[in-house]
Amino acid sequence: MPDSGGSRAQREHIPTSGTGPGADSAPLTPHGDAGALSVDPGAPQVTAPAGLPAAPEAGGLKAARRTGFLVTMVLGGLTALPPLSMDMYLPALPAVTDSLSAPAATIQLTLTACLAGMALGQLVVGPMSDRWGRRRPLLLGMVVYVIATAICALAPSAELLIGFRLLQGLAGAAGIVIARAVVRDLYDGVEMARFFSTLMLISGVAPIIAPLIGGQVMRFTDWRGIFVVLTGVGIVLTLVVWKWLHETLPPGSRHTGGVGEALRTMRGLLADRVFTGYMVTGGLAFAVLFAYISASPFVVQEIYGASPQTFSLLFGLNSIGLIAVGQINGKLLVGRISLDKVLGFGLAVIVLAAVALLLMTTGVFGEVGLVPVAAGLFVLMSAMGVAMPNTNAQALMRTKHAAGSASALLGTSSFLIGAIASPLVGIAGEDTAVPMAVVQVVCAVAAVGCFLGLCRPWQRVGREAGGL
After folding, report:
1. Among residues 369, 371, 406, which one has the least CA distance to residue 36?
2. CA–CA separation, 64 and 48 (whole Å)
3. Which of 210, 136, 206 has its CA nearest to residue 178?
């Protein structure tokens, strides 16, 4: 995902530390943001939000903390909105198929459209926020999000629903990009790292509760009610942003380089074989994940006869597995075991789980019930907790000079590859889970191939962090 605008630490040229390439390079320029998680411990830890005094008096600090808590809630809501928009809708997919009299593959395009919108929107909104500030593009995106979501609730056809899901994704991308840019505007050093950890936790919890909420909404109304709820959430967030989230990027820090500069930087990044290898590996791993997201409502409910509420509980359990393994990766493995070794192990587990699912769905083990399939999906999802963050970390280690543009490429490529994989899982209809398993096996094996063929981790033996 692209992250626009440098942090105050970067604008003040606070040096960074690290073990990846370029760790001993000169201080950061305003175009780089690799110092987000690797900073000088002596650097200032918090910068007071705009409009608040940065004085050391107790009253000023309390005001800053109160405002910081409010900013956390606002940015947390913006970060959670995209997964809510995607995952609240999942339990309703079979119902939408029946209501609009459309094939399952067509209805799965509503997920693809939203995901593609989020991917492309990130490339657009980032430069906009650098040029015009954070507040105006964010408010514009939120207003468009509310309108698009309300029309989705009224959509009379699958084609119209697909079109406005695309617009919903484009507008919802504003929250992803600008939330991170605002964090960089307000915080420095360790406090900024902690804030990003909070936002990542919120974005991890949102997929857990979203299908649960969607399943409960389906008990009282039809699928259109889910979009009504999302419209209400969007209205509340828009009002909160308008009233409490002030501009954090001063006019003097804005620039007009925008899209042209970003494109030149991205072209240079793509010329780096190892960076591209990690980028494609992460995108293919995300495709495995999104094949599960788009197909599991039909697999669990239509093929194995589970209720929307049971599907929501299973989806939440799988998300808990992903978050738990991700926390183990960040707190226990990183710094003790090289990232490439952990990444290779995670990819191997994903391949094994995908192959097991393919064997089960093709009947090699005979007639299997929901429990074995659910167990395979749980293992596959949990392994994502080490595969996806480590591909991003390894890629960003190579781009301390342009981590913002690198983040844009990583986020956009993952969303686009996932969007391509999504309709393929429904190509044989909603009565078989084989296409889902085939897509997962192909993408998982391709991810391993990219990791070995492009990243070539054995060539970086001895690196203190991130090597094999």
Report:
1. 406
2. 6
3. 136
Report how far residue 111's alpha carbon sits from residue 56's, in angstroms, rounded to the nearest whole number: 49
Q: Which residues contact 78 (CB under 8 A, 6 or more apart)?
A: 138, 175, 176, 178, 179, 237, 241
Q: Is 258 left (phi over 0), alpha (psi -120 to 50) or beta?
A: left
What average pLDDT does the chain have? 74
pLDDT digits (tens, 9 = 90+) for 412-447: 787 788 778 777 877 756 667 788 889 899 999 999
220-250 burial, b at 16+ Cβ within 10 Å, e below that, comes to eeebbbbbbbbbebbbebbebbeeebebbbe
**Tens digits of per-residue pLDDT, 369-394?**
888 888 999 999 888 888 877 787 77
Is the predicted pLDDT of residue 57 greater than 50, yes or no? no
Cβ proximity of 242 and 165 under 8 Å: no
Task: State how far the alpha carbon of 146 is from the alpha carbons of 134, 224, 230, 375, in Å.
Answer: 19, 14, 8, 37
Using DSSP, state whether 337 is helix, strand or coil.
Answer: strand
Q: What is the DSSP string of 45-84?
A: -B-PPTTS----SHHHHHHHHHHHHHHHHHHHHHHHHHHH
Q: Specify the pTM.
A: 0.64
Token pair listed for 420: 């391509």
What is the structure's pLDDT at 461? 52
Q: Is the pLDDT assigned to residue 50 strictly greater than 50?
A: no
Cα–Cα distance for residue pair 156/308, rounded to 1 Å: 23
Residue spans of alpha helices (H) in 248-329 = 258-270, 273-298, 308-328
Question: At residue 355, what is the residue type?
Answer: V
20: confidence class by pLDDT, cuts 50, 70, 90 = very low
Nearest to 65 by CA among 79, 46, 44, 39: 46
Helices (H) and strands (E) in the chain, counts: 15, 0
- pLDDT at residue number 162: 93
Q: Point out which residues pair with 187 in neighbouring strands.
A: 46
20 CA to centre of own chain: 24
Q: Would you list the DSSP string of 226-245?
A: HHHHHHHHHHHHHHHHHHH-
